[in-house]
Amino acid sequence: PFYPIPFGRRDSLTFANLSTTLANLPSPASNVTVLISVLGPKGLTFTDLVALSGGHTIGRSNCSSFQNRLYNSTTGISMQDSTLDESFAKNLYLTCPTNTTVNTTNLDIRTPNVFDNKYYVDLLKEQTLFTSDQSLYTDTRTRDIVKSFALNQSLFFQQFVLSMLKMGQLDV
């Protein structure tokens, strides 16, 4: 979707650093409660959270960002997350054969290079990489929003634009 970028914004005089960035971004292993506890105080709603997560319709992830859904973190032994589609998990095990691999994979398996609503279709089919993403569908507070975006790409695009504009005004 297209949206106008507001002009006249003041850029920061300092560069972002890793510790500040990590303190303001929830982990991909977070659930909806953690996501909204981090983003809610910034003025973002559940709808914003679901819409902005739709940005995961493009891009790639390192296996280490979702290994918690495939392996036991203590033993490293295969232990599939119950909210992960079995056939999807089998393919992920091929890409990420151990819990220490540095391989990457597409965030969206259906249309990895197209900005569309297939990310939400993937959520309905339990075929997403991150716990934070899948929890948007398993949590009753966000499930209906996920369903509506999966069924209506125009609605997703419209809300994505509104949420991006809102996020772009944070701390300006």
TrEMBL record:
Please verify whether the record's keywords include Glycoprotein.
yes
Binding, substrate:
P26
Its EC number is 1.11.1.7
Q: What InterPro entries does the entry give?
A: Haem_peroxidase (IPR002016), Haem_peroxidase_sf (IPR010255), Peroxidase_pln (IPR000823), Peroxidases_heam-ligand_BS (IPR019793)
Q: Where does heme b bind?
A: H56
Where would I find the Plant heme peroxidase family profile domain in this sequence? 1-172
Disulfide cross-links: C63-C96
Q: Does the keyword Metal-binding apply?
A: yes
Any Gene Ontology biological process: response to oxidative stress
Q: Which cofactor does it need?
A: Ca(2+); heme b
Q: Which reaction does it catalyse?
A: 2 a phenolic donor + H2O2 = 2 a phenolic radical donor + 2 H2O
| Residue sites binding Ca(2+) per the record | T57, D108, T111, D116
PANTHER family for this protein? PEROXIDASE 16-RELATED, PTHR31517
User: Which family, according to UniProt?
Assistant: Belongs to the peroxidase family. Ascorbate peroxidase subfamily.
Q: What is this protein called?
A: peroxidase
Which organism's genome codes for this protein?
Picea sitchensis (Sitka spruce)
